[in-house]
């Protein structure tokens, strides 16, 4: 029994370290260098209050805006659920695949990374959708992820998006753009 104690102590120390890191994670951003692509200061100057406000019009408006997408990704990271957005983006990219040779390998990579049980960045979808997608993988096509992508989009739209609009990341970003006007 004694040889196990150092192992348990080591595991607890590691857990304390990880929990310590989590407690420092915040959804507040006063410095937007972490979330805005390109040159953040220039990006913030180009982002108008009107544009940032339009992100609240619809989830798809948010996803279609480069800086909206970046801010939403940063928010999802604070919730440890960025795999949903990454999967959705991977599917959008996959639909643009024109090479039949690349189609199967890209599909397999997406399936293994996001859909398969115990995938490294497994998305939260129901059993039926997972199984339908698995069957679709037998003959991959540009639409093989459509149902899974739709479920993940709906989940983000109904769950994460409203929280994003109430988050400090979004409200701080709006404040920054409004302050610039005054």
Quick overview:
The protein has 182 residues and is mainly alpha-helical. The protein has helices at residues 4-24, 40-46, 49-54, 59-64, 66-78, 82-94, 100-115, 127-136, 146-166, 168-181.
Top keywords for this entry?
single chain, 182 residues, mainly alpha, Regulator of G-protein Signalling 4, domain 2, 10 helices
Structure report:
There is one protein chain. This protein has 182 residues and is mostly helical. It has one domain (48-177): Regulator of G-protein Signalling 4, domain 2, CATH 1.10.167. The protein is 70% helix and 0% strand. It has helices spanning 4-24, 40-46, 49-54, 59-64, 66-78, 82-94, 100-115, 127-136, 146-166, 168-181.
User: What is the rounded Rg?
Assistant: 20 Å
* Shape label: elongated
Number of strands: 0
Low-confidence stretches: 1-31
- Whole-number count of domains: 1
Q: How would a crystallographer describe the biggest sheet?
A: none
Class of secondary structure makeup: mainly alpha
The N- and C-terminal alpha carbons lie at a distance of 68 Å
Strand content: under 5%
Q: What is the number of helices? A: 10
Quick check: average pLDDT? Answer: 82
CATH superfamily: Regulator of G-protein Signalling 4, domain 2
Which CATH class applies here? Answer: Mainly Alpha
**Could you say what the CATH architecture is?**
Orthogonal Bundle
What topology does this entry show?
Elements: H1 4-24, H2 40-46, H3 49-54, H4 59-64, H5 66-78, H6 82-94, H7 100-115, H8 127-136, H9 146-166, H10 168-181
Helix pairs in contact: 6-7, 6-9
């Amino acid at each position: 029994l004694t040889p196990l104690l150092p192992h348990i102590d080591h595991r607890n120390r590691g857990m304390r370290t990880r929990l310590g890191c989590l407690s420092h994670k915040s959804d507040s951003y006063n410095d937007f260098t972490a979330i805005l692509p390109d040159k953040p200061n220039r990006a913030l100057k180009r982002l108008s209050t009107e544009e940032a406000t339009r992100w609240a019009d619809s989830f798809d408006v948010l996803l279609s805006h480069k800086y909206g997408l970046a801010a939403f990704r940063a928010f999802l990271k604070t919730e440890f659920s960025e795999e949903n957005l990454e999967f959705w983006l991977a599917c959008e990219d996959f639909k643009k695949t024109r090479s039949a040779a690349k189609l199967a390998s890209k599909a397999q990579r997406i399936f293994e990374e996001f859909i398969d049980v115990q995938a490294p960045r497994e998305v939260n979808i129901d059993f039926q959708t997972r199984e339908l997608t698995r069957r679709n993988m037998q003959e991959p096509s540009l639409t093989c992820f459509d149902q899974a992508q739709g479920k993940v989009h709906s989940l983000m739209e109904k769950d994460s998006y409203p929280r994003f609009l109430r988050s400090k990341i979004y409200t701080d970003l709006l404040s920054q753009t409004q302050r610039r006007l005054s």
